[in-house]
Design goal:
With 206 residues, this protein is of the alpha/beta class. The chain has a single domain, classed as Maf protein (Alpha-Beta Complex), CATH 3.90.950. The chain has 6 helices and 6 strands; from the N terminus they run E-H-E-H-H-E-H-E-E-E-H-H. A 6-stranded mixed β-sheet has the order 2-1-3-4-5-6. It is globular.
């Protein structure tokens, strides 16, 4: 799906310290949207993700960075701040790990290993990735969008691309994991891509 954006020179801050996410979002969004990293705007704080839902964590991150920009007089020509939170929701585990996806077992390799252990011997391996994005504008406007991709958990790791759970997640309609698919394919069908497409619709109508 092609993303269209008619606004020119839009500048957004992405409230993340995850270099993989930042690179992925920059590839997904149109070239005329400049995505600034936290490092580029001088934000160095750790943001405590204390929410119990993806929606809460997404908003916490966006609000924290938004307030910091205001307090430090750095809004300038920035059009908005957005933050995402993503969860892997495994059907057979009742939606776990969900909001705890990134820290389920401590680090990416351990997280993947735990998912494979928990599903060992289970027939139902269906799962979904869900991304929630919160956009905040300087005028206080808040919009929330989301994106979902359904798929299944592989029985072992495959592929070297991507990050996180990508080596064990096979999206519906494909026989390869996200870590095996070319970036241009993943970035057109992923949960994050779908959330970004919804974000662009909001920006187009701003």
């Amino acid at each position: 799906m092609q993303i269209l954006l008619y606004l020119c020179g839009m500048k957004l801050v992405f409230a993340t310290n995850n270099a993989h996410k930042l690179g992925e979002v920059r590839q997904i969004l149109p070239e005329n949207v400049e995505v600034l990293s936290l490092e580029q705007v001088g934000f160095t704080q750790d943001i405590a993700e204390t929410g119990t839902t993806l929606e809460e964590n997404s908003r916490i991150k966006a609000e924290t960075v938004c307030q910091w920009l205001k307090d430090n007089g750095k809004w300038g020509n920035i059009d908005g701040v957005f933050a995402d939170d993503t969860g892997l929701e495994i059907d057979a585990l009742g939606g776990i790990p969900g909001v705890y996806t990134a820290r389920w077992a401590g680090e990416p390799a351990a997280n993947r290993a735990k998912a494979l252990r928990e599903l060992k011997g289970k027939i139902n391996r269906e799962a979904q990735f869900r991304t929630v994005v919160t956009l905040l504008r300087a005028n206080g406007e808040c919009r929330v969008v989301s994106g979902i991709v359904r798929g299944r958990i592989a029985t072992s790791e495959h592929g070297e691309k991507g990050f996180g759970y990508d080596p064990i997640f096979i999206p519906d309609g494909y026989n390869n994991t996200f870590a095996e698919l070319p970036a241009e394919i993943k970035n057109s069908i992923s949960h994050r891509a779908r959330a970004m497409q919804e974000l662009v619709k909001i920006l187009d109508n701003a």
